[in-house]
Amino acid sequence: MTRVLLLGGTGDALRIARQLGSRHVYSLAGLGKVPDDLSCGVRVGGFGGSEGMARYIADERIGLVVDATHPYAAQISANAAKASGAVGVPCWALRRQGWKPQAGDDWRMVGDWAELTAALAPFNRPLFTLGREPLAHLDEIPPQQFWTVRCLDTYEGSPRARILATRGPFTLKGERMLFSAEAFDVVVSKNSGGSATEAKLEVARERGLPVVMLRRPELPAVDREFASVADLLEALQVSG
């Protein structure tokens, strides 16, 4: 198989990495736990933008870049497409489908942080499931609100915020327990898709809670797109 540079950090990416042999490289930004049970090489840290990634691809004789990063990791996806194009190496991407609202859902779509905070104005106890971004805004919490922020980072928090340092997958039972204990009145989410974090949406639906949903960013065109891990892995075997 052509030497693969797999850009990851998601559960889907880890599933792909577990199928790669020692010639290939799994690249992580460095947040969260670094897997230690893979046959492929593991690289941790940034590349220095698209130019640095292009140099790495050329120096390491990478023959295929596979972007399996988070659907909201727009910058690294852009860097991957630009870098691979600069050195004439194909770029594939796993583009997981987003969730679709169901009967009983109350989704409030927003495009950025300003729209998000405006949408939260009527509420008192939001649950943030955006990752670490809310940590940069803890000094902006409105007087009537208490935030719960679920992310990978440990953080001291503030008098009016609780930081839950944990990672998915999250079960329906566990989410029901959390929502009952904390009395959230709104959920803040990215439209990440997949099953690992979908249970919060089901619980919000059960409890009649609105969901402030951050729209997906536009991602660059690549040589091939895949909607599932299975399809991508099949293509990797064929390409080998």
TrEMBL record:
The molecular function terms in GO held by this entry are: precorrin-6A reductase activity
Gene from which the chain derives:
cobK
Give the matching PANTHER family.
COBALT-PRECORRIN-6A REDUCTASE
This protein's pathway: Cofactor biosynthesis; adenosylcobalamin biosynthesis
> Has keyword Oxidoreductase?
yes
Keyword terms of this UniProt record: Cobalamin biosynthesis, Oxidoreductase
Enzymatic class = oxidoreductase
Q: Which InterPro entries match?
A: Precorrin-6x_reduct
Q: Which domain of life is it from?
A: Bacteria
Q: What name is this protein filed under?
A: Precorrin-6A reductase
Please give the Pfam families that the UniProt record associates with this protein. Answer: CbiJ
According to its UniProt record, the EC number is 1.3.1.54
